Amino acid sequence: MNQKHCPFCKTPATSGCTHLALAAEGRSFVRRCVELSHGASEWRTLCEKRRSLVRATGEWSPEQEDYTWLETAFGEDFLKRLRWFGGMDYEWRSGPKLQQGGFWVLLWSKDPRRLWWELRDEFERQAGDLRIPELKARGPKTDDPRKRGFDGIMNAA
Ligand SMILES: [Zn+2]
User: How far, in Å, CA of 89 to CA of 105, rounded?
Assistant: First the structure.
């Protein structure tokens, strides 16, 4: 009833085809993506930087942190930006016992191997882009973060 098919070759997801990069339960989806991309250290660096950034801006909350790792947010922030991203689907799969059933996340790509390489690069790129402000802005807000940093130094001197 809820059977999903490959967007490229129309094979049922349960049969599997070369375009099915990953089929995983929702709760393990993000972890599996990180494993398959071999980008665990890049991912860790990015997570640490994101955490320090939200702390520095005073917007950190445990809820927000949890939210960040949901597969939907992960899809928006990382997967959907990739050139080799082919689609994400949800499929209900039943386990050996009825109560073990759950939603599985399916990730499609024309070439999963390239998708995983690209994902690791994306972790690295985003981590490189994050700038942790060393000085908290105390003065009036300016649009240019470099100018704000400079003012901060001048005020402290
Ligand atoms: Zn296929």
Answer: 6
Phi, psi of 54 (to 5 degrees): -70, -30
The reported pTM is 0.76
Task: State residue 130's pLDDT score.
Answer: 84
| pLDDT > 80? residue 62 | no
Could you tell me which residue, 4 or 103, shows the higher pLDDT? 4
Cα–ligand 1 centroid distance for 109 (angstroms): 8
CA of 10 to the centre of ligand 1 (A): 6
Q: How far is the CA of 94 from the centre of ligand 1 (A)?
A: 22
For the chain, domain boundaries = 20-156
* CA 111 – ligand 1 centroid, Å: 10
Q: How far is the CA of 16 from the centre of ligand 1 (A)?
A: 7
- How far is C-alpha 73 from the chain's CA centre? 6
Ligand 1 centroid – CA 155 distance (Å): 60
Residues in the chain: 157
Strands (E), 13-143: 20-25, 87-93, 102-108
The yes-or-no verdict on residue 153 having pLDDT over 60 is: no
Question: How far apart are the two ends of the chain, measured CA to CA in Å?
Answer: 68
